[in-house]
UniProtKB/TrEMBL annotation:
This is MarR family transcriptional regulator. Coiled coil: none annotated. It comes from the Bacteria. One of its GO terms (molecular function) is DNA-binding transcription factor activity. Residues 26-161 form the HTH marR-type domain. Keywords: DNA-binding, Transcription, Transcription regulation.
């Protein structure tokens, strides 16, 4: 067996040897996306853990920060933007509130609604952590030239849009996942 440039190359070669009748090119693409996601996720989790956060917690803080001053959204808007269930968002909000990074309060204009806002400490932490997060992502993408990164981003955007993951627009602010 010939050793490839990455693990996926090795797996594809094994398939070619045992099933030469199969076109395994799709496995290569999806396998590499999956493997890149696994490696990036591992590096991201390690970075956030060093700051006392879980990736989902950072996602909430970053979503509030991206919303602009006064850095306040409803739990429903946060759940939609972070693409998790209302139960998951409630758990994240509770952990972040316990850490003093956000606060929940009743909406003064509609007492049935809850508003979630960054605290001063939450804003300071997300401002600090986002810069290192970007450096971590730059390091992960370093094997590619800036032009290749742009090309890859465009191809992935087209793949996701073609798979039904189109941009959401609603009556509230539009957010993009970090």
């Amino acid at each position: 067996m010939v050793v490839g440039a990455d693990r996926v190359s090795d797996y594809l070669q094994q398939w070619r040897e045992v099933r030469p009748d199969l076109d395994v090119a799709p496995m290569g693409v999806v396998g590499r996306i999956s493997r890149a996601n696994e490696l990036a996720g591992r590096a991201t989790r390690a970075y956030f853990t060093g700051h006392g956060l879980q990736p989902g917690e950072f996602d909430v803080l970053a979503t509030l920060r991206r919303s602009g001053a006064p850095f306040t959204l409803t739990p429903g808007e946060l759940a939609e933007s972070t693409m998790v269930s209302s139960a998951a968002i409630t758990n994240r909000l509770s952990r972040l509130e316990t850490k003093g990074l956000l606060r929940r309060r009743t909406d003064p204009h509609n007492r049935r609604n809850v508003l979630v806002a960054l605290t001063k400490d939450g804003l300071a932490l997300v401002e600090q952590v986002v810069e290192g997060h970007l450096e971590n992502e730059r390091r992960l993408l370093a094997p590619l030239t800036p032009q290749e990164q742009t090309q890859l981003a465009g191809l992935l955007e087209r793949l996701l849009a073609g798979s039904g993951d189109s941009s959401r627009t609603s009556g509230s602010k539009s957010h993009h996942r970090d």
